[in-house]
Amino acid sequence: MAMKIRLARGGSKKRPFYRIVAADSRMPRDGRFIEKLGTYNPLLPKDSEERVTMNMDRINYWLGEGAQPTDRISRMLEAAGAIEKKDRNNPKKAEPGQKAKDRAQEKADKLAAAEEAPAVEAAVEEAPAVEAAAEEAPAAEAAVEEAPAAEAAVEEAPAVEAEKK
To answer: What is the pTM for the complete model shown?
Structure first.
């Protein structure tokens, strides 16, 4: 029989509360267990003494019987000093996800394109640049002329509504 020391969830919805239990590994998470070994209340502050309570005598007994703690329980036992710390290796921990990599690539592409654009514009002669500025000026004047026409249309609309009444 494979024994586990694990968390069994209790509490209501959105208010978790866990029992630390010794259970057969084939039983459901919240199902039958052999012995309650402590409690864990994640809603309490991390420095609270009541956040994790463990009966260390019974936990050591079950560890001696060959019970395997889950990862979360082993971290709690390491913090309590009951077992030695394990070396954990997660090389992908600091690596960004695929979307973040894609965004960084797009940003690098835009930056490279922005650096190339001024170099191309500097190579163009000054005369076409003056002609382009002259062409843009009438377009700006036309935009100014269109604005009063839009205001006049707005002023006419209330008058039409008043006539309908």
So the answer is: 0.53
